[in-house]
Amino acid sequence: MNGPEIDVSLAPELRMFAVPERRRERTAVVTDGASTLGHVIESLGVPLTEVGGVLVDGRDTPVSHVPRAGEWVEVRAVARPQRVPGAPLRFLLDVHLGTLARRLRLLGVDAAYESEDIGDPALAALSAAQRRVLLSRDRGLLRRRELWAGAYVYSDRPDDQLRDVLGRFAPVLAPWTRCTACNGPLEDADKDAVRERLEHGTRRTYDVFAQCTACERVYWRGAHHARLEAIVQRALGEFGAAAR
Known about the structure:
The chain is α/β, with parallel strands linked by helices and 244 residues long. It has helices spanning 37-43, 98-106, 120-130, 139-142, 158-169, 191-194, 200-205, 225-239; strands at 5-10, 27-30, 51-56, 59-60, 72-77, 91-93, 111-113, 133-136, 149-152, 186-189, 209-212, 218-219. Strand 3 (51-56) and strand 4 form a beta hairpin. InterPro entries: Mut7-C_RNAse_dom, Ub_Mut7C.
């Protein structure tokens, strides 16, 4: 690029996306004179899904603006909780976020998940077709134009990933109402109705069951319940009052 030079300030939360020399409070960027602000911001490594607004010389400006020499561009992070208008709040997670998908489902959050790598174009198209917020740690995927809405998952640790998503989007939590295997809704199940699906020890030990209305998987408070209950209680303690 050898066109107009502008000054860019990235919000502190966004500086992690830029190369080290661009993480200063204010950095000079030479543009090509034709690219939009959105293109310039993405060229710095920041997905537009993480941008909450742009100021040019102190004025709110769309990312379609073509910057001119000497302008000062301030790039703000998304406000939390982030509102996603246009559809009920629901998510689509890429192949690398299976644990996060299961934890969201445990809390009753609608979280579709592709356990096979179907490719970035197909994932972005599915997000658009189903109007789901795509969650990913892949910046390239979040830059795809066909994407309906998306969000970068900032941590690689499931506990922190869950807190990040709950804090950012404030979904309504309804624990134990969704199948962690397929995302379908659960309903109470009569023991006799699911008896043939149970091991002998389970039939002898447990009396309360739920069943997925989609895949018919049966649930009960087994050996892993205490660990799952701890996840639920931590989420409810910090985010249980969230409502949309």
